[in-house]
Amino acid sequence: MKQILMGNEAIALGLIHAGVDMVSGYPGTPSSEILGNFQKFRDKNKLEAYAQWATNEKVGFEVAYAGAISGKRTCATMKQVGLNVASDALMSASYIGLKGAMLLISCDDPGFYSSQTEQDSRSFAKFARIPVLDPSTPQEAYDMVKLGIEFSHEFESIVMLRPVMRVSHAREICDVDDALHVKANQGNFERNIPRWGAVPPAGRFRQGLEQIDRLEAIKAWNWDHLIKPKTHALKGETILCLTSGTGDGYVREAMSELEIKADILKLDMPYPLPKEKLEALFVNYDKIIVFEESFPCIEEQLSSVKLYGKLTKHVHLIDEFSKDKVLAALAKADVIAPSHAYQSEKYDQELPKRPPNMCPGCPHRDVHYAITKVFKKKKSIYTSDIGCYTLGLNQAAIDTILCMGASISMASGFSISDPDKTVVATIGDSTFMHSGVAPLINAVYQNHKFVLIILDNSTTAMTGRQTTPERTNPNQIDIKRIIEGCGIACHEYVYEQDLTKTVDFMKSLQEAYKTATSPVVAVVREFCVLDKDNALGRLGNVVVEVDEDKCVACDSCITNYKCPPMHYNDAGKMEIDPFLCAGCGSCLDVVCPTDAFVKKEEK
Amino acid sequence: MKYQIVIAGIGGQGAVFLVKVLSIASAITHQKCLGTENHGMSQRGGSVSCYVKIGDFYAPAIDEGQADLLIALEGNEALRNIQYLSKERGVIVMNAPKNFPKVDFETHSIDAFKKAKAKEFPIDALNVYMLGVTLALDAHFPFTCKEIEEAITMMNAKVAEKNITVLHQGINDTKAKK
Ligand code: SF4
Ligand code: SF4
């Protein structure tokens, strides 16, 4: 049956068709729609399956892994930086293996579209010594999910699927199974202490050896089933392009559009590679060029003086592929003359910049604004974390961002290293649950003094509003009680679209800080403006205008508050774009020193 | 046939909706289609650009100098993406005010914001309105009005009627202007 599917939908459907009925993970762009779509398909087809967001990726991985060692078919989903969090568990699990099947999906983000790093999950597969499948389109992603699950079952190994953003968020007409034969598979954990509980060194040593044997078998399988059948299509040109994932599409298109002669061999499982067999192919070619995103995973496994790639600096080292980059690599390797077939001039006049910014009407903006207003920049350090509030960078309201949870632990560090400044940490509710609790315990335990503000909008907003623990179980999991569980007071503020009140709340925290001997912790109860249920009745309805006579173009609103509708008009005065303004009215009283913002009418 | 479309706009304007409609239209007309969307960090108000490649393609992104059509839901976003247009074939359909800078491509513009301000159509249907404008203008556009209507209905039957009305409003406004 043909269906139009986005990559992540294709993956979700593939999971269902592969008989997976246990999915756990943590949201992260570009992976987030996999679990959500799995839930949708499950409900539509009335299947019995577990699919829930975990508090973080390590937890998600471990839940799915336990399912797999009980014989079930399971899956864990995350993005590449999430895999860093889950890597502790992955390293051990890859030694031990499993009994049912488990697909680990880690979505990469070449080009840094929504990530702090460009790391390549295939390198992690190599590090953990597990096979990895690298799809290049939604259709392939669907097929590889099914292949991966079968393969995982056969080899008792976790299998990684690593789609990149251009696969996860691509949309294609896919050929998928018609019938649905899925029934819940029953888990049955069988006690086997030497295997599941092996402790160092003897037990693990043996498992390590077994893992190496397994890898050799997988290499042979990779050659027999995935690579060798493709070698029949090689035409005996003088150049061989080794490709993987999306790199393949760019190479194929450029070659056919510009009529460049070369053989292309796509490696569906870029690790582990049958090195000797592949290298034996090289004798027939003058040059072998490797096109892969993002790190030189294939290239590092092969050796030949004929090999060109990232390690030899013939292929670009960072950023996603494009056909222009394919041509540049071919030119550098002296295969073609330099070509600019895929280059064109940009518009050369200045255009209004639209860096990622918080939505108009978002409560986070007010909180950041109030923090910088009360805890002055010169006397403070602002640590923050990963989520929509990270965009407070635009307001210069954030000094550091490292990784999930680091706002709190780094606040501890700064409170020791630079004690004359007030450290103000901000973190969202989902991130706090993900990895903020442990550093808070550490801060209380060691009496680190800083201000911590938890921005609780009860959703994982940045990745598309996935549910969070306290949203699902509001009467049990409560941030305030977690803080109180640490034996300290929780300052609570229910957000209103009135900046004066938010500023006053910050002043109260500043007072509390003066006499504090441990962290001053607050929770601000917010909402996300895109969150229909929670924002209902809390959104504004005023039409705001700028009084041109009062506006002195001092930049103060645009630099410190930075709401997207604010821009200068031809007369050099501030103006509000009515199509972007959410009508919240927050900017009315505080942000303008000359009170130029005025309310025109109720919407 | 090979036809490549860049859709540019601001977060919240519904560029992604258009990608979906165009890929459904491709399926209806039995053509291969590869689309990608750029979402994640871009919240409301940020730059958004999406690609739709109809025909025999393998790479998800559109390269510079290759697109046949640029649909821009906002004028400056058209300029920001102009390098994707083909020098020979490139056509721009954009929502921009009258006094907008001239560029070296066949350009069709309409001040849809002004019409929305005058409450001629609801602003949240700007995307569909611009699709109507495109249908009325671009002779090479690979779909007919009927096929687009069918795609809109398949997308979401509940709001299809409203959307199709706005689609025709876009078509009619453009024809009236001509
Ligand atoms: S998505 Fe929600 S939380 Fe994120 S910036 Fe927009 S309103 Fe704020
Ligand atoms: S009322 Fe002011 S603060 Fe609120 S969205 Fe409009 S411009 Fe932004």
From TrEMBL, chain A:
Gene Ontology MF terms: 4 iron, 4 sulfur cluster binding; indolepyruvate ferredoxin oxidoreductase activity; metal ion binding; thiamine pyrophosphate binding
Binding annotation for [4Fe-4S] cluster 1: 551, 554, 557, 592
Gene3D superfamilies to which the protein is assigned, alphabetical: 3.30.70.20, 3.40.50.920, 3.40.50.970
Cofactor(s) in the UniProt record: [4Fe-4S] cluster
Record Pfam families: POR_N, TPP_enzyme_C
Binding site residues for [4Fe-4S] cluster 2: 563, 581, 584, 587
Organism: Sulfurospirillum diekertiae
Subunit structure and binding partners: Heterodimer of the IorA and IorB subunits.
Lineage of producing organism: Bacteria, Pseudomonadati, Campylobacterota, Epsilonproteobacteria, Campylobacterales
Function: Catalyzes the ferredoxin-dependent oxidative decarboxylation of arylpyruvates.
Catalytic activity: indole-3-pyruvate + 2 oxidized [2Fe-2S]-[ferredoxin] + CoA = (indol-3-yl)acetyl-CoA + 2 reduced [2Fe-2S]-[ferredoxin] + CO2 + H(+)
Enzyme class: oxidoreductase
Top-level division of the source organism's lineage: Bacteria
Record-level GO BP terms: small molecule metabolic process
Note on how the cofactor is bound: Binds 2 [4Fe-4S] clusters. In this family the first cluster has a non-standard and varying [4Fe-4S] binding motif CX(2)CX(2)CX(4-5)CP.
EC number: 1.2.7.8
Keywords (A to Z) from UniProt: 4Fe-4S, Electron transport, Iron, Iron-sulfur, Metal-binding, Oxidoreductase, Transport
Signal peptide: none
Name of the protein in question: Indolepyruvate oxidoreductase subunit IorA
TrEMBL record, chain B:
GO MF annotation list: oxidoreductase activity, acting on the aldehyde or oxo group of donors
Cross-referenced InterPro entries: IorB_Oxidoreductase (IPR052198), Pyrv/ketoisovalerate_OxRed_cat (IPR019752), Pyrv_flavodox_OxRed_cen (IPR002869)
Pfam families to which the protein is assigned, alphabetical: POR
Gene3D superfamilies given in the database record: Pyruvate-ferredoxin oxidoreductase, PFOR, domain III (3.40.920.10)
Protein's recorded name: 2-oxoacid:acceptor oxidoreductase family protein
